[in-house]
Amino acid sequence: xxxxxxxxxxxxxELFRRYFAHYQKGQVRSMPGLLPxxxxxxxxxxxxxxxxxxxxxxxxxLMRGGISSTDFAKALGPAFDSGSPWxxxxxxxxxxxxxxxxQGLPEANSVVVRPRTVLNSSLPTDxxxxxxxxxxxxxxxxxxxxxxxxxxxxxxxxLLKRMxxxxxxxxxxxxxxxQREPSPCSRQYEGLLLLCQMVLEQAAKCxxxxxxxRCQTPWLLRTHIGDLTQTLQREERERLVEEVLQLWxxxxxxxxxxxxxxxxxxxxxxxxxxxxxxxxxxxxxxxxTSLSGIHRASLVPxxxxxxxxxxxxxSTPVATLPGKLxxxxxxxxxxxxxxxxxxxxxxxxxxxxxxxGLREAAGPFDWIRFNGQGVTHLLRNGFQDFLDWEERVHDVxxxxxxxxxxGGSFWHHDISxxxxxxxxxxxxxxxxxxxxxxxxxxxxxxxxxxxxxxPDLYSALHARFAAVGRxxxxxxxxxxxxxxxxxxxxxxxxxxxxxxxxGAWEAPVGGCLPEEQARERxxxxxxxxxxxxxxxxxxxxxxxxxxxxxxxxVASLSQQLVPxxxxxxxxxxYQPYRSMPTTAVAATLQATLPSIxxxxxxxxxxxxxxxxxxxxxxxxx
Length: 621
Known about the structure:
The chain is 37% helix and 15% strand. The protein has 22 helices and 18 strands. The chain has helices spanning 2-25, 58-64, 70-76, 115-119, 123-133, 156-160, 167-179, 187-204, 225-229, 234-248, 265-271, 280-291, 294-297, 329-334, 347-355, 372-381, 418-432, 454-465, 503-506, 514-540, 554-558, 582-592; strands at 41-46, 87-95, 100-110, 145-152, 220-221, 340-344, 368-369, 394-396, 399-403, 409-410, 438-444, 470-480, 484-488, 495-501, 549-551, 564-565, 577-578, 616-620. It has a six-stranded antiparallel beta sheet, with helices on both faces. Strands 6-11-12-14-13-15 form a six-stranded mixed beta sheet, with helices on both faces. Helix 15 crosses helix 20. The longest helix is centred in the last third of the chain and has 27 residues, at 514-540. The model is unreliable at 277-345 and 580-621 (pLDDT under 50). It comes from Cladocopium goreaui.
């Protein structure tokens, strides 16, 4: 049956794509907006092997490959229900005598949090309740409980200096870096030199055949060294291999007893009956092709929710919920019946919605520029002049830009083309005809001056859509000193203002070419926006017990924001910049908001920029 064969191949390709998407992106154990003294932390607890001998099932096999859903967890029993928003239960692999086996164990993984969150939340007690439910003894010999810390590269030297067997290498590396010609090492480069030496030294001393990570004690480096090198200057990247080998000074065989490898997709597919031996060679070649993109992909982290539970983002829709942001019933209630994400988008938000699997159809505002007054104008007149432009096209960085009569601009579409105009006519009709119990609109303001226009925007949205659904509006405000969500009493609970840390647009990015840096900046901003979206969803669901700060009016909120601006949406791209230097802004806020300052922790770090996640070294103890 050709139809059945085509469906089987399509299903297999989808499985293949999701498997590699899971392992390419990894799990970044970091978060934006950290203070200089703060280190993110994440915990893992493995259930004792003798308590859960799980037989292989299709659900378990898929979970071993990083593909899971609520239905899978239910099928596997109570061991996969943590009962806590702070912990998610996944499958950890089991090693046999010579190779990894298909069976797995439940492993409770915490979300990434600040240490203070551990002390002031239910995170530890929730773990204790989960272990009590599974009847895990209070004292278990040689049980696997570990923690992972996100340590900036420049602080690695101070960490490794505390390890007795690294004292000599630390001193030699510090001396080498001070005397190096033509210029001394940066602190980041010195930290990477030490890390590489530690990995090589431990690999050469490995006395048993096992997983390579077992030899890395007491600290295990979790960040891909290839990713870390991308944060270095080009000259340092070119010298890294030679100088690491020079400082290590060893010539021993690495892993002299051999290593135990993990199961990969070809083995799992074969053992799971998805392919036969004759297909394995072809599958291995496809795997090699897929892996070629890992380095680039691994620099783009999944979003991390700080101080609220993690949101699982499967790659494809599950049931009727597109993208299935979470497996929490409250979210299903909020976003049920294929919720509409009507996004008044600039590029980073469009990219974020697409990455979360929520962008099933294009909208009229996707990948165009506009100001607040322009979008309100279009909502009130039913998009009558949406495609009217000023008949003078200008060039920006090789792009033809069409400025509109209502204050926006088209950057990626030739709206003089009749087919393009027909496409946008369909998009605007789809937008205006949306019907749903919950309609979520996302707006990125073009500067603090636009915050004052939000009441008019929400009024226009409410007038247009209130008869067909609940109108929710998330307002993203870039370039702020802290990440927080606030409400105003005059607009009520359906409107949330999310402050986005300025690091999303000012933190260093990798890449040598301007287009590479622009892509990396887009992903960095997308991740920051996803964090804000996830926290807003938790608030709308009532899933967070602490209510956000509420200002009396939008005007009073505007006065407390860090001032910033953006070029005219009619002629320029989205390039946010602060209206005052960071230090001056913070001084102004501290002078005018003494009672609120403690709730804005980033005021303490006004001269620092948060580290890009690819510069965070993940170390597990």
